[in-house]
What we know:
Elements: H1 9-12, H2 38-49, H3 58-70, E1 74-76, H4 78-89, H5 99-105, E2 107-113, E3 117-124, E4 127-133, E5 139-144, H6 149-156, E6 158-160, E7 177-184, H7 195-206, H8 210-217, E8 222-228, H9 235-257, E9 262-269, E10 286-293
Parallel strand pairs: 1-5, 8-9
Antiparallel strand pairs: 2-3, 2-6, 3-4, 4-5, 7-10, 8-10
Helix pairs in contact: 2-4, 3-4, 7-9
Amino acid sequence: MTPSRYQDWGASLGGGFDVADETLDRPAGFDLDDDIDDDFEANLEAEALTKGFGGIGAMGLDVTVLTAFGSQGFNTTPQFRKTWIALLRANRVRSSAGFRADFCKARHFRAKLKGAGIKTFAVVRGFPMAYSFSVSGKVILEGIGNPRFIDQLARSGQRTPPPLPCPQPPIRLPKPRVYAVTVYFSPPGSANVKASEQQKLFDWYSGLPPSVQAKIKQGRLTIVLEGFASTTQPAAANKRLSERRAVQVRNALMAIIGPGAKYMLYPWGESKAKTPDEVEDPKERRVRVSVTDPS
């Protein structure tokens, strides 16, 4: 049985597009001259029948092309491979190396063709290439059309995004922002928040973005209070001291913010001190206040 002109369009490249006169939005598809570039078609057909290509027979070359595209995740029809080989012989395309990247970067269209229904095309390396999908979702390269068909696709086809598994635009997750301030205590052993440190807390909270302030007041963002102490007392005593300091800072913040905020206290004592034991360091007498906004 002789294939129809559409069925053979992948190999013939010139006369395979038999479509009606209407635009894509109408049922029959859009118009395309059915007799364009017949000489180009005949020349490529003749090239495809030429025996030998770099010492490789026709069957061996077909297997080579099949394997090359398969390694990049594509299935191919015999018609596609036949045309691809003809284009290789005519030096109209380079090797299949990098084809996957070119396919993913190409313009993709959907077009309704007379007698063939809706077909999907990618304009790759200057040629419109029809493709479909296997049951498993793998791309099947069906045929390669005449370059003149690209203008018709651009005018009347419907642009579509490249299919998976082409790389999709990365999902840009918002980077969390941390707002922090440190309150220091003196003299050694003190857990009282001085007026200057209370002012520091007020300035810190007032400087937060209004959206962050609103989330804190609504209890949607938790204020983390980490208490620390020097190493001059026993570890248990320093842990209790760091907890009292964190509580006092919490009380100061409650006076500034109001009752709706939530707090998480971590009394680290001397466990995170950077000095040896029995060393009094003003930098260790502190409470770190932080809030993390994920959006």
